[in-house]
Every structure is written in C-alpha cells, then in structure tokens.
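[audit] Reproducing an earlier prediction to check determinism. Same input, same settings, fresh worker. If the tokens differ from the archived copy the diff job will pick it up downstream; this log only records the rerun itself.
[audit] input (181 residues):
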Amino acid sequence: MLASAYTEKYPQNVKSLILIGGGELDVSISSIVNQNVNNRLQLSDTISWKYWSDSTNIKRDSKKAAYEIRKLRWSLLSFDKSKLDDIVKQAMHGDYDSKMGALMWSSLEKEKFNVVSSLAKKYKGKTLLIFGWQDPIGLTTLTLYQKAFPNAITRGINYCGHMPSVEQPEEFYKIVNDFLQ
C-alpha cells in the first residue's frame, strides 16, 4: 500500500515496481478484507487469542504473548502453517507499533484513501504483481491492483498465502528474477 501511495504521488520517481500480496488501494473494501481474514478463525485460534491477550499472561511474559498474538494473526494469512515461525520472523523485521497502525488506518479511512484510478492514469512504468492463491488479502485486492496497474504482469503462486517469499521461496524468487531480467 505504501509503495502504491508513493507511486501515485510521485510517479516520475518510480521506474518499475514489484508488489507482493498488496493491501487495500481503496479503503472502502477494508471490511471485505477483514471478513475474509477473520473467516479463517478456528475455535483453537480464539482460545489461544484469549489466553495470550489475558493481562496475567502478558504480565508474566510480554514478549512471548506479543509473539504468540502475532503468530496467530499471521496464521490467518498463511497457507503452510509449518512455516509460521519463519513467516513471523520475516514479518518482525522492525517493530510494529499497533498504536501507529491504528492511527494510520484511521487516517486512511478519514481521507477515504483510494488511489486506483489515479494510479492507472499517472503511472506507466513496469509492474509485477505477485500474490498467493490462498491469500485472503491478495485475492481480495487483486482486481483493484489490476485496474490500478493495467499493464502489470500478474503472477499467482499456489500453496501460498500472504508471504510468498517464505512459503514458496523458489517460485517467488524465480518470478522476481525473471521480471528483473
């Protein structure tokens, strides 16, 4: 989303773009994305969520609780659950500040963030869209990305959720390298 927003604002600064399992380019579909993700919740997820969100468990081991909550969130976006620790490790590059995230989403909703049609008009560079066929976010937003980047090369990866570089690294890097060639 950030790369797309930057490209919409400064199209002259972007020669080519690789977008992976993109988020909403139009916040009006956020509720649909959230429904698709939350629809994957299982009873065991809800039980774990309550356990690790309990103030007693947070107080006992706040790092472990934060890790387990993040792991639960990513499990909803992942196809291969055996790779969850690797996915979380990749996703945790840098600290995620939930307060900052909430402020960002509040601002996007207030401004009715939608860059689809302006990107289609402004940006003419080369674009690669990569998504996992089992990604509840990427599949939901794919149509918007194809409208925003009508000349993009689009590649789906099977047996893959929102983190294709971890779930299917060989296929992911082959697609990226082919595009860069």
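[audit] rerun output stored. Observation attached for the diff report: The chain has a mean pLDDT of 92.
[audit] end
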